[in-house]
Every structure is written in C-alpha cells, then in structure tokens.
Amino acid sequence: MSSGNNVKALKSGIWYTVANFLTRSIGFITTPIFTRLLTHDEYGLYNNYISWQSTLIILVTLNLTSTFISARFEFEDDFDGYISSVMSLSFLSTLIWTIAINLFPAWFVNLTGVELRYLNILMVYLLFYSAIEMFQTRERYYFEYKISVLISVVISVGSSLLSVLLVLTMENRLAGRIIGNSACYILIGSVLLFYIYYKGRKVDIKYWLYALPICTPFIPHLLSLTLLNSMDRIMITRICGAEDNALYSLAYNCGAIITLLVTSLNTAFAPWLGEKLNDDDLDEIRSVSEKYVFLFVFLAAGIMLIVPEILLLMGGPSYLEAIYVMPPVAFGCVCQFIYIMYVNIEQFKKKTVGMAFASVSAAALNYILNALLIPRFGYVAAAYTTLVSFLWLAVAHMYLVKRLGCLDVYNTKLILTILAAMSVYTVVINYVYRLPVIRYAILAVYTILFICAAWKYKGLILSILKRRKGRKA
Questions:
Q1: How many Å separate Cα 67 from the centre of its chain?
Q2: Contact (CB, 8 A) for 425 and 367
C-alpha cells in the first residue's frame, strides 16, 4: 500500500472520530430532554427497546460486515458483488425473524417485554440498518469518509429532532420516540440498499457459503461482549439498588468516551491492517502499531486525569463519589483497544471460532466475580471485575493469535509492558484524586507534552487534515 493510502487511512480515522464524537454528544445533549418529556414508565420501556435492539442487531443481521476484512482481498475484483450478495443474506435472515415473531407473538412479547408493533418496527429498522452498515464499512475499506461521515451526522441529528417533534405531537409518546429513532435509518437505508444492489448487480450463494463460517462464530462473541458491558449494571441494581446503579452508570457512560475512541480509530486501522497483512508488510505494521498504541494510551491517561471535571460536568457534585469507578473503566477500555487489534488479525485469517470461546469465558468470569465481590465491596467492585474480564480477553486473544503463528505482527512484549504500566497508573491515579495540587501539576506536565507532540508532528497533522485533490490510492 502506498504512503498516500497511509495518509488517507489516518485522515479517515480522524474524521470518523470527529463524527462519532459529534453524534455521541447529540445523544448526551438530548438525554435530559427525553427524561423530561417521557414518563418514567415510557423512558424505561424505550431503554428496554434499545437494549433488545442492540442484541437483535447481532442476531438478525448476522454481523456480516465482520467478513469484509478478508473478503476485500479474496474477492477484490468483485467486492461490490460480494456486498450485494451478503446484503441479500441479511435480508433473508431479517425476513425469517419477522415471520417467526408474527407466528409466535406471545412468546416474543413475553421474552422481550416489547409490544408486537414495536418488534415489527424494529425488524424494518434492522433491514435498513444493515444496508447503512454495509455501505459505511465498504467506504472505510476504500478509505473514503466524506459521504459516510455525512450520513452519520444526518442520521444522528435527524433522529434526535424528529424524535423530539413526534414525542411532543403524538398522543403515544413511546411510539413517537421509537418511530423517531427508526425513521431516518429506514429512509437513508432504503437509498443505500438500492445503491448496494446497483453496484453489485448479483446475489451469489458462494459468497454466503464463504461468509457464514466466518461470521457465525462471531455472533456469540458479540453477544457475550454485549452482556459483559451490561451485566454489571443489572447486578448492581439487584444487589445495591437503583441509586448506586445511577452513580456507577454515569461514571461508566463517561468512560464510554474512551470506548468511542476505540471504535473510531479501529474503523481506519482495520482496513489499513488488512492491506498490510495482504502485502505481508510486517515491518510497517509493527512500526505504525507501536505509535498507534502509544497514542491511544496517552489519550486514555489524559482522560483519567480529568475525571472529577468530567463527572461535575455530566452529573454535578452529587455524582463525585463515583470518581473511583472511572480509572478501572478507562483501563478496561485500553484492554478492549488491545484485544481488538488482535481480533482484527483473527478476522483477516478467518479464524473466528476461538473468539467466541474467549468472549463467553470473559462474560462468565465477569458474572462470577460480580456475584462474589459486589455484595462485599459495593458498586465500585463492578468496575474492577469488568477490568479483569477485559484483561482476560486481551491475553486470550494474544494466545489465539499466537496459535495462528501471527504473534510477531505486533510488538507484543511492548504491549504487555504498556498494560503493566497502565496497571500501576490506575492504582496511583486513585490516590492522586485526593491531592488536587499534585493532580493539577501532573495535568500541566501532560498538557505541555501534548502540545510538544502536536508541534513535533504538526506537518503530518496538517497533511492529514489538508484536502488532497486528485490523490490516488
């Protein structure tokens, strides 16, 4: 891959990160609006709907975009044909689920606590969500970002504005919230669905047979991760009560800022890694990935320094006691970042069965530790049990990649050293929170280092941000 593609990958990563932060910030801004427009019952039912939406996205759409990292190269001359084919597979899966839901409505309604009409809206949403996801993933693998970023922003802003309008004007405010959340996805997804079939112009069963063995083991992996991210809050509510869960949830959601960095950066890194693995250019992978890890850890360490300010901004003084939740949550996000780097290799090699075992075991470990430690140490313990589970995932995926003979793709010794250093930093930062003068002194040093690094690499940063018309990949 040319140096031009390196710049395009970095540039697309920056813009995806900016867009994700913008769309996520809109969610933060509108949350207080909907808590006031909806009753507690309506707000609870909507969040239940969203929880099932997150789960059914994995089950219904089959997460077929996880196959793109290898299909992009194996079917390089017919990648659009591959996408239109697997889009049809997603459509078929959605149709089967829709039929099953309407044949056995009582069972599904009792299982989910979601009314049948909303389940049908959800199925339509999932069909067009899949089209949007496939289009945007395709764009990322070509290091294109303009249309994809625009779509993300339009959907986020449009869904929020439409939801507020419908909640204010409809008698059934819950229906207004659900329809408002889905309508923009359905409208834009229908256009992109047409585009996918226009570009691909085929439905080839051989591509289904290629995709299913790769994505099927990935489904329990993602379901376990969903459970891993929600189990602690469910158990805190049951063991400690709703008030403790509110404290924990705010701190955990603030830590999602770092998770957002993980997903945003990986949208650029995964396609770049796939190109380099395809070219067997291990030297450049190691060189770039070392800088990539240092950058992420440096940003995560900085966020951990300003935890008190983040909690004051998001929740006010009454939430400050949750300050000790964020460091282990932030360290857990670093572990998540590391294991995703290794997952990318497993996906490229089409070896995804081990991923499912690693994720299921991590979810089971999290449940056992929560059951043992939350009753004894309170809600803060849940942050550390989640951290241990993510550490386990990082080590497990390193082992899986070692079995593939690919451990030397990254500088694993350096990564393990960084994880050890972050462990010490997480312990130290808990004590620093009690010493404001020292914390501000460290923050001042951090800021100076940040400015110096930005100045040193200002040429690279400007070249990434600058429009480069006519550049070829």
A1: 17
A2: no
Q: What is the Cα–Cα distance from 219 to 201, expressed in whole angstroms?
A: 28
Per-position DSSP letters for 336-356, written without gaps between them:
HHHHHHHHHHHHHTT--HHHH
- List the domain boundaries for the chain: 12-213, 217-434
CA distance 263 to 296: 12
C-alpha–C-alpha distance, residues 97 and 368, integer Å: 32
Q: What's this model's pTM, rounded to 2 decimal places?
A: 0.67
Residue appearing with tokens 């969203």: 50
Q: 93-127, pLDDT tens digit by residue?
A: 999 999 999 999 999 988 887 889 999 999 999 99
* Amino acid at the residue 457: Y
Q: What are the tens digits of pLDDT across the range 262-320?
A: 666 666 677 778 778 888 888 888 888 888 888 888 888 888 888 888 777 766 677 77
Q: Are 325 and 256 in contact (CB under 8 A)?
A: no
Provide the H-helix boundaries in 326-411.
Answer: 326-348, 353-377, 380-403
Q: What does R_g of the chain's alpha carbons equal in angstroms?
A: 22
